[in-house]
Amino acid sequence: MKTPLVTIFGGSGLLGRYAVRAFxxxxxxxxxxVRHPNLGQYLMTMGHVGxxxxxxxxxxxxxxVAAAMRGADVVVNLVGVLYQSGHQSxxxxxxxxxxxxxxxxxxxxxxxxHVSAIGADPDSDSTYASTKGEGEARIRAxxxxxxxxxxxxxxGPEDNFFNRFAGLARMLPxxxxxxxxxxxxxxxxxxDAGDAILKCATDAGTQGKTYELGGPAVYSFKQLMxxxxxxxxxxxxxxxxxxxxxxxxxxxxxxxxxxxxxMDQVRLLKHDTVVSPGALGLADLGVAPDSxxxxxxxxxxxxxxxxxxxxxxxxxxxxxxxxx
Length: 324
Hints:
Blueprint: E1 5-9, H1 14-25, E2 29-34, E3 52-56, H2 62-68, E4 74-77, H3 90-108, E5 111-115, H4 127-142, E6 147-151, E7 154-155, H5 162-171, E8 174-178, E9 184-185, E10 188-189, H6 190-202, E11 210-213, E12 219-220, H7 221-232, E13 237-241, H8 243-253, H9 263-268, H10 292-295, H11 297-300, H12 313-321
């Protein structure tokens, strides 16, 4: 019996590495399509010799897309960006690139799993969210049987949220609460999202459906900042910043090569990123999600004043209570 092959576009990203690992652990052959193969070589250590391959692929290049998925049984598209730079535009990746992948997968009869985002809506005032929504529409038009996953904020040891704000807290005397810090998130562990992708690849009943992936709890932006400060042992002021002031600052910060904040991200923060009532989710895929409390402290220790030698917050609490 032939071992199934999955091609994962965006395989070297945060979610990509967990998807690669999930498929490799399940015995699949994995081909990771990435723009810079030299940055994805570490993926090959996640499986047996020859089980995981890294192929050069750019979703804006139809020929490279077709070559990367040659012989694939399942195709997973994880490509996306949070800000635009050069030819890496929202339109090129989220819309045109998604359609290119869908057409190529349809041509070879491969199952398609597309990862979008909660809040994807062609009519959104955020270009990120509107292009994600348009990408979903293009995919549905090409392949109505495609499975679409919409995760909330994805976290893991390599994430760009908890690590970024923990790093800022190490340098700055205060952290900004954009819009007052009221925006709500339902963070989902990248490992759980990777398991959800694998489940969709192996369960024909998921075809044509859309799933929203969120963790076990909902937090406001302020609560997430308080969690980061607590876990890193930092005392920092949390300063509310109205949206209009944040937009002015983002107009300048957005010009940096790797912007800390863009105007589009400010617009995105005006909307909650939580699982919709009644939406299909991780429970429907048989995945029990991990909480941020169970995962994040294990990688935020490096931002503590004494690093790994700093006594963990929970141990301090236990010691102060006099119980063991």
